[in-house]
Amino acid sequence: MDLVSQYGPALLRGFGITVICWILGTIFGMALGLVIALIQRYAPRPVRWLIQIYIEVIRGTPFLVQLFVLYYGGPLIGLRLDALPAGLLGLTIYGSPYFAEIFRSGFRAVAHGQIEAARAIGMTEPTIIRRILLPLGLVSALPALVNFSIILTKETVILSIITVPELMYQVSRMSAETFRYVEANLVLALFFWALVETISRLGRRLEARITQHLIERT
Amino acid sequence: MFSIPVFLESFQPLMWAAQYTLLISVLGILLGLVIGTLICAARLSGSRLLRGFGGLWVSFLRGVPLLVQLLVFYYALPVIGLDVAPTAAAVICVGVCASAYISEIWRGAIAALPRGQAEAARAIGMSPRDTWIRIILPQAFSMSLPALVNELILLVKASSLVSVVGILEITRASQAQAATTFRPLEVYIAAACIYLAINLCLAALGRYLEHRTAV
Amino acid sequence: MQASSVEISKVNKFYGPFHALKDVDLSIPPGKVTCLIGPSGSGKSTLLRCINFLEEYDSGEVRIDGKLMGYDAPGRKMSGKKLRQMRRGVGMVFQQFNLWPHMTALQNVAEGLIRVRGLPKSEAEARATDALRKVGLADKTGNHPARLSGGQQQRVAIARAIAMEPQLMLFDEPTSALDPELVGEVLNVMKTLASEGMTMVVVTHEMGFAAHVADQVAFMEKGELVAVDSPQGIFHAPKDERIWNFLRTYRERNAF
């Protein structure tokens, strides 16, 4: 009982920060990923190469090392960020190439014929993107988007290592003070398990809702 | 600003530590293959109990962040009276986590095989055992190879987390190096370069396997 | 060559509430070709797959040379071992060929001889080569399926079935997945088989094949066996309006 009153508020605050990191990280990462995917589709070749290098670098290195470069290395080149903004920026950068890849294959899933049909009736390229490519591409990318945003939920705990005061950070502090390492981390594990299961269930419902009119009835 | 000499000097201790990153990842994926295959077999078996167990195993390990799994495991070992070397503990933890993903890779590959493949075997009177060994598994395995290489890449990156419990590998070594040189930027970028080099090689291997198996 | 006969009586099959086969009776004489025709979804393939028990019928009997297929007694399924024993005598060719892509043509044909018949590898390969020669593919033994045309793949699939020396061959729309120009080579192999006195049951949309090669033609619709007659009777003097309608649609679609 004591533990609850003593650590409850901190844990709750930590949970709030975890949720904020997850939601903002997903939104920003998705936005950056969408921009990257569109650049890859339409930009001239040298730009695409640069983007490709960015993608390879981010996907080829651990999130933790990216955070270290950003948070501890940043000040050396004048990038001084608090832990939380650094963590959010890190999540955004880390997620962007994965989101970009998801969008890219979503776009590819839009049948070429549907784009051609739009061109044939004289739609301009921006209109095609807005009215045909994005809506159809987003729908086919949806399962993968939900999936990756769930992966991001789990990645938020890594932010605790650069002292972002999210849930895992609070749990670590609590267990260091009470010496209840096993129990605290076990509870945290169960909590994440429940959270991820819930989100994926909601995600599946959302998919079913959004795609129902696109599935051919036999 | 960015000091090239510091950057270059960081490579030596980090390269030395890279062997531990590789060791943990490779042993991790081997362990993951063994456990993952068993879990996949459990999930495809006729027994409800085994299927339920396999399902829980996969759902738990995929639902809980690896860092949390690592800490639970690390702190729980002494409590249940097991004295395991820290590096071995890390390998076990990484391997167990990978088993959940590998089991799903197997299951996906087996499910992706057209039904007719097994049907043709049944139609000529082949036994279930031969059908699995000769028809289903060889195809599932070659289909899964690229995904398995991808899993290895994920493990190389995930192994950076074992630095948290003090196991020496690239990330831990770079933390130590950063603390002594006071040049975290150069050191961590050097670490990133080594990870990148390892993973680009693995990715090339994956692409090669993909082309080779695409008959 | 020994040739089997098949007696199908009062066979019913349900998929949940859907009644896929309704009291089907059909007698397949030895050494003859029986063609099953009818609109898609009429149950032809389901009936064919009941003969080697790839599809489990719910009631009635399928007897091959008098032996009950799939069940020891009504409602009691036979053991896997016994089922495999019975399936050895029944060859099957699928619409999608179902060749094993990780094996060469020769290995595809030899696999069953080695694993099921227990022949030594050298003998299995010799027989597999013979079977491939018979379907005109002696020069393709080392090719993987992906390196063969659809017609060649289907001929390998036929070789795979006949290498097992079956007494009965089942064909499930063997030419439906083929480009039109490749249909002929497969039908020719089937004609040769028929002329050698193999009992054949063929689900097909090739009315020409049914008319010229079949000894009897069975017409199915909506899970019912509507009529069994000589090709002459079915194609030129259909006794049932449903057959007449089906043939009219078929002719209209193929007219130009």
Write up what this structure looks like.
Chain A is an all-alpha fold and 218 residues long. In chain A, 82% of the residues lie in helices and 0% in strands. Chain A has eight helices and no strands. Chain B is an all-alpha fold. Chain B has a single domain, classed as MetI-like fold (Orthogonal Bundle). Chain B is built from eight helices and no strands. In chain B, helix 1 (4-44) runs antiparallel to helix 6 (128-158) and helix 5 (115-123) packs antiparallel against helix 6 (128-158). The model of chain B has no long low-confidence stretch (mean pLDDT 89). Chain C contains nine helices and twelve strands. Chain C has a six-stranded mixed β-sheet with strand order 8-9-10-3-11-12, with helices on both faces. A four-stranded antiparallel β-sheet of chain C has the order 2-1-4-5, with helices on one face. The radius of gyration of chain C is 18 Å and the shape is globular. Chain C starts with 5 loop residues before the first strand and ends with a helix. Chains in contact: A-B, B-C. The A-B interface holds A 56-57, 59-66, 68-69, 72-74, 76-77, 154-155, 157-158, 160-161, 168, 172, 181-182, 185-186, 188-189, 192-197 and B 1-2, 59-60, 62-69, 71-72, 75-76, 79, 153, 156-161, 163-164, 170-171, 174-175, 178, 183-186, 188-189, 191-192, 195-196, 199-200, 203.
Query: What would you call the shape of chain B?
Result: flat
- CATH fold group of the largest domain in chain C: Rossmann fold
Please name the CATH topology of chain B: MetI-like fold
Number of self-contained structural domains of chain C: 2
How many distinct domains of chain B? 1
Main location (chain A): membrane
Keywords (chain A): Amino-acid transport, Cell membrane, Membrane, Transmembrane, Transmembrane helix, Transport
GO molecular function, one term (chain A): transmembrane transporter activity
Family (chain A): Belongs to the binding-protein-dependent transport system permease family. HisMQ subfamily.
